[in-house]
Design a protein that fits this description.
seven-stranded mixed sheet; alpha/beta; 23 helices; Rossmann fold; single chain; 631 residues; 54% helix
């Protein structure tokens, strides 16, 4: 006997009276939709990757503790603040997830602390716990990690910003992101309130509070900020409580160093109060351990005499990482960049990220605005000249004056576009763009047909030829002009956006070329038939076949350029200029991956970030040095 048994109180049997086998089957558990599972996996990969690349983990690896990292606990000291009540110290074994679940907090938490206190690490630990809950229970919201530094428009509601960030960071469509926010399926973990421009921080807090009081307010939310910046705000966040990460106590520092087998370092620090004050944050303590793996007295004397000990410590860390002996997985020994090259390229990158208030960097986000004014003019000149020559030559058998006119016009339009780059990774069709493109192409084709008719001495047929050429071209523009690119930035590999753009351009060129090649043959045939003119070259089917082939090639190339190829070309020209001016290496992805080995950067998919904002700001404060020649 086999049956489903559900213990609902109305379907009970005496098991002793049953003969045969009884199979108790668990009812099918509901599962999340595929899109939600994909987002869960993406966020999970991000959290695991960033925690694995944290400074704490780097310390364990360098001190040969990676085999049992759970035996070396992160040093923490925290206190809980709720309303106007006095701050309450928290026991060391209480996790950030338990604080999040506190009945007084109810999942709306503010994480505060001094620079380097471990706020982002605490946020990642919380995200890891919340991801486990979301995996186990489909009714739990999915945590997403967003950096408020990208909020730059004071008129943009945080709800719309979060939806745009979902698309930008995780590849979620605007429509689906809006639905998830409305259905409260997401749990925002907002980092970097202090990284918002100072003049916009008050507005940002107001917008966050408006979001929290709206109909689509998330069930739970957590925000991170530096303590000093938050206390300077006049408008507090409408959250239920805050956990403040305090400076490390002497006991915590001693216990941490003892776990790492560095008792001599504790002896040095305990006898130098100024050095002990320097390492009271987890970041500075870990930087010290990595910068000085040996307990040499000379190191501590130099650090103690430094006018700016933190700057001296960061410089020591950079030198140590550059000269650390290890086997690179991305460069052969003879290919490793020089220390001067590595330093110069990182300084340039930090300058660009600070100027644009970026916490993360993607190779496909390189823009011509990163060039000097002179180099930007050269960049536009190269693009404009190339586009002019290409379009002029692409006019086939038209008169030289027509080729020159079209070439100049195309080059001028490319120049006016500013040369900005936007990777087109997915192709879609929109009504608005189709009408716009159809109108422009129809009017332009009609005008070009009229000019060409005048050139061949058929002024009486200007209107007819213009309509004959303009109407079909307008229809073609309506059909093809509605195709546009959509950026999907769930970046799994470096420079994924440009690679997809180039691939899409090839696909578009192969599809558009044959259609427009045949179309061009029909148009030429109708025009010459209407004008009762038979050019000498059109006496055979071979000639018309060559026209079709030429149209296929030229229009296919134009189509490819329009749908990703032009942006790929712009990116290539920009990379050449950056390389020639020694701002970046030629293989940028390999260099950035090398910097993750040096523990300067972290990588998540195709995105890169400095291991800490301290280090990013330190590099950005350095002047841009000339890059020395290769060894």
């Amino acid at each position: 006997m086999s049956r489903e048994y559900n213990n609902w109180g109305r379907d009970q049997i005496n098991i002793e009276q049953v003969q045969g086998n009884v199979v108790l089957q668990e009812r099918d558990r509901p599962t999340r939709p595929r899109e939600e599972l994909l987002l869960l996996q993406t966020v999970e990969d991000e959290v695991v990757s960033r925690l694995d690349q944290s400074l704490h983990y780097a310390v364990l690896i360098n001190l040969k503790k990676e085999a049992q990292p759970e035996q070396v606990n992160r040093p923490w000291e925290r206190e809980l603040r709720i309303g106007l009540k006095p701050a309450t110290p928290l026991p060391a074994d209480r996790t950030i997830a338990q604080i999040f679940d506190d009945p007084a907090i109810r999942g709306k938490l503010l994480i505060l602390g001094q620079p380097g206190a471990g706020k982002t690490t605490a946020l990642l630990d919380l995200a890891k716990a919340l991801l486990e809950r979301a995996r186990a229970d489909i009714h739990q919201p999915i945590p997403i990690i967003l950096n408020l530094s990208t909020w730059k428009d004071e008129k943009q509601p945080i709800r719309e910003w979060a939806i745009a960030e979902l698309k930008s960071k995780y590849g979620v469509s605007i429509k689906l992101g809006r639905q998830w926010v409305s259905d409260r399926k997401l749990l925002p973990l907002l980092d970097g309130l202090d990284e918002v421009a100072p003049e916009r921080q008050e507005s940002c807090v107001i917008c966050v509070n408006e979001f929290l009081s709206s109909e689509s307010s998330p069930l739970y939310v957590t925000v991170c900020s530096r303590l000093a910046e938050y206390e300077n705000l006049t408008q507090p966040l409408h959250l239920n409580g805050a956990v403040c990460l305090k400076e490390l106590s002497n006991e915590q520092i001693q216990a941490y160093l003892t776990q790492l087998d560095r008792p001599l370092l504790w002896q040095v620090l305990s006898h130098h109060s100024d050095l002990l004050e320097l390492v009271r944050s987890p970041f500075r303590l870990n930087i010290t351990l990595l910068a000085y793996p040996q307990d040499s007295g000379d190191h501590w004397e130099q650090l103690q005499r430094a006018s700016n000990p933190l700057q001296f410590l960061l410089n020591a860390y950079i030198e140590r990482m550059l000269h650390r002996q290890f086997e690179s997985q991305v460069y052969a020994k003879c290919e490793i960049p020089t220390d001067g090259e590595t330093r110069a390229w990182l300084i340039w990158l930090a300058h660009q990220m600070v100027e644009r208030a970026q916490a993360e960097f993607l190779i496909e986000d390189l823009q011509p605005s990163m060039l000097s004014k002179r180099q930007r003019s050269l960049y536009l000149a190269i693009l404009g000249l190339s586009a002019g020559i290409f379009s002029g030559l692409g006019c086939g058998i038209s008169a030289p004056s027509g080729k020159l006119l079209i070439g100049l016009l195309t080059g001028w339009l490319v120049w006016l576009s500013g040369g900005s780059i936007k990777a087109l990774e997915n192709i879609k069709w929109t009504w608005r763009r189709s009408l716009h493109a159809g109108t422009i192409l129809g009017l332009g084709g009609g005008l070009a047909g009229g000019v060409a008719t005048v050139q061949v001495g058929e002024q009486n047929n200007v209107l007819i030829v213009g309509l004959l050429l303009g109407l079909p071209l307008g229809l073609m523009g309506w059909l093809l002009g509605g195709i546009t690119g959509e950026t999907v930035e769930q970046k799994l590999v470096p420079n994924q956006g440009i690679k997809r753009s180039v691939r899409n351009s090839v696909t578009a060129g192969l599809l558009i070329g044959p259609i427009l090649g045949l179309f061009s043959v029909l148009i030429w045939g109708l025009i010459f038939g209407l004008l009762n003119r038979t050019p000498s070259w059109s006496s055979s089917w071979l000639s018309w076949g060559l026209i079709g082939l030429m149209g296929w090639l030229i229009l296919g190339l134009f189509g490819g350029l329009a749908f990703g190829g032009l942006d790929g070309t712009k990116h290539f020209v920009l990379r050449v200029l950056l390389y020639k001016n020694k701002k970046t290496p030629w293989n940028y992805a390999r260099f950035l991956n090398y910097c993750t080995e040096l523990v300067f950067l972290q990588r998540v998919g195709g995105r890169y970030r400095f291991i800490h904002k301290y280090l990013q700001d330190h590099f950005a404060a350095m002047p841009l040095p000339p890059v020395p020649d290769k060894r």
